[in-house]
Amino acid sequence: MVYRFLLPLVLLFSLPSANAAYETWTRSDGKSAEMEFLKLEKVDGEEMVTFRTRAGNSVTMKLVDLLQPDWKRARDAAAAATPAGPPGLTLEFHKAIGVPPKPLPDGKTTPEALSFQFVVKGESYVGIKKDSLVVEPFEIGGKAVPAKSWQASSGSGPSAYLMVEARGDFDLEKFSGCKLAAKVTALRGTKKQSTKVEAKVNSKTGKSELKVGPVVLDFHHSYATTNGVERHFLYVEPNYAGEKQDPRQIIKCALESDGKEVRELAYEKGMKSVTVAVDYWEDLVESELELKATAP
Hints:
- The chain has 296 residues and is mainly beta.
- It has 2 helices and 22 strands.
C-alpha cells in the first residue's frame, strides 16, 4: 500500500526535533515534511521510497512524486546505507553512440537509440541484477528521456561489455555532450568450487534434476532419429526453471568420457552412471556500479 503524506503537515512540524537524521523532503506539488529516510527499493519496476515521520509512522511513496533534487538525495542515502561490495571489479567507459533508424523488411524502421558502453573487468563477474538499473534524469535536445526507456545488458567476466541503452524518437544531432549518470547492481561469485559427481542414468527417455552443492543441473537422457536410425545421447546443462537459482552461479558443467570433458555422450545399453564435472560459485553477491559518461 502506498501512503502519500497521510499526516497533516502542521502536525509533522509541530513535533519536537530530536534526531539529526530527520530532513525536509518536498513533494512535486510543493508540500514539504520533515522525515527520516529509511529505504529506496524497486517494486514492480517502480522506485519506491520509504520515510519515517517524527510521529513514528512509515510513509511510502513513488520517488518521482518528490521534487527532482530529492531523487538524488534519496538515491545517495540508499547507496550510503548499502554495504560496500566485494573488491575486484573495475569499470571503464568504452564509448557512446547514437544509432540511427534502420529499415525493416516490412517497410517499417527501427527507432533511434542512445547507447553508452562500458567494460567491466573481474574474474568472478557474472553479470548484472535484473531490473537494477537506475538512471538520473536525462535530456537530449531539451527533451527528457523517460526512465523506463533505459535498459541495461551485460555479459560475464573476466572482461565483459555492459551496455545502457534507450530507444525512442531522438534528435541524434544533439547527442554530443549529453551526460549519463546511472547505477546498476553487479553480481559476482564468492569462491570457486570444482567437483565431479556420478549421475545415475535412467533407462527411460527424459530428464532429471541433479543437485551439486548449492546448484541444480538438468541431466538429460534423450534421443533423435536420423535417416531412420535412432540415436540416444546424454547431456547436462544448468537448470533455468523458476526461481531455484541464478544459472550464472554455474561456471561450467560437462560430461566426462575417457578423462575428457564432452558436451554430449552417446548412450550405450546397460550404462548405469556417468561422470559429471561441475565448476560453480559458492554464492553470488551484489556490488553497485556507478556509471558516468559523456557522449563525445
